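Justification of computing resources. Each target in the renewal requires a structure prediction run like the one illustrated here; the chain below, 487 residues long, is used simply to show the kind of job we budget for.
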Amino acid sequence: MLFNSYIFIFLFLPLVLLGYYGLNHFKQNKLAIVYVIGMSFWFYGYNSIEYLCILVFSILINYLLVELMSRLQKQEVRRILLLLGLVWNIGALFYYKYFDFFVENFNKVFHTDIAFLELVLPLGISFYTFQQLSYVIDSYKRDCEKYSLVEYAAYVSFFPQLIAGPIVYHDELIPQLRDEANKKLNFDNMAKGIYAFSLGLAKKVLLADTFSRLVAVGYYDIYKLNATSTLLVMVCYSLQIYFDFSGYCDMAYGIGYMFNIKLPVNFNSPYKAASITEFWDRWHMTLTRFFTKYVYIPLGGSRRGKCRTYLNIFIVFAVSGLWHGANWTFIVWGCMNGIAKVLDRMFHKVVEKIPRLAGIILTFTFSTFAWSLFRSKSVAHARVLWSNFAKKPWGEIYPPFIETFDELIEAEVLQHFNIGGILTIYPWLLLVLFVVGVTIASMTMRNTQEKVAVMKLTTKKVLVVIILLVWSVLSLSQVSEFLYFNF
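Resulting structure tokens:
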């Protein structure tokens, strides 16, 4: 089930909130949590019972491993159980996400003909697997208390963060679910939640999905693009993935507030970053901290000299690239960011002297270049795109871009304000103004967390929410998945 769907907005969300607070009102606190788990299972299994079975089985196996670990005192036995937990979780991820990729490359290198499994990737498996890995590892280290199966199932399956994050740690969510104060309806938090959700929905439906149409046209016809159109499609994808992921994070954050649950911030205006280091402190923040805690630090972190530190940073980014998908484009993308991060750290004194505005532009330029590889079907496909800058002239924008943009209802409305026939003379003007305006907004405007933190319920805020919700719902003619569902 998608946040940006009629069934979620008009049926699922009202039902889960009414049931949760209704049961808590009648002191049925445990039943309320069970109800949320059941609704989360419905949310996850809406399009596939098979996916739901995988999730439930994963929860039971991990909980059983930790239960055994907590009852056995011999370190050797606990270490074996930890190893089993790592093999189980990473093995399941490899089987569903990377098996065919491994076979494809194995066949190419060794000229074999091993058959593909052609498995469909279960939604959210990368996210809920990492959450459970953190629980298994922390349990082995005795860094977490004992939880009931109901609490653990709620932690893993809580629907706002189940499919695309944030990656939440057990000690962040379960204590909030236990807190008696959080079981009562809080109108202030509900208002903040609806506000954040409406902003996120608008980002996804009105911005990300608009850029998605333009990007689809551009990447389908890369051989026909000149240098100008190539630059445009690359910037559009940077904005698409930005508002797609930002929109999801805002909606998850807002739904959490509706339950009096404060989820960790996962997206903090990354296009305001003036360096690659700052960018990755702002983009997918919970994934960055997961790799820092469970990969970078165990590798030695920065404790074993500069060369080892640089190697550890590079390894983390290479693994992060692979985490995003079974394709060489993701691995090369991760390595590119790893090299950039290492160079940023090596020459940090030089980087710090760059004026902030110049740093923001340089960081956005690098990110846009890297994202184009992220979006491409293959490394060869990306090279064709990049070669357009050298082989093709700068000139008029590819007409299908303008036609696709002009098909939007909002664009059709603006066409009526064709003052002095300016849009007839410059048919690309609305598109360019839209892309430039949204780019500047992503680098300058306050983000949703900042707005929610100082939000006061006023008539103006209510009108903003109503307008955004109505506008977004009326634009839900083609419900699209979030990009991070693919990872």
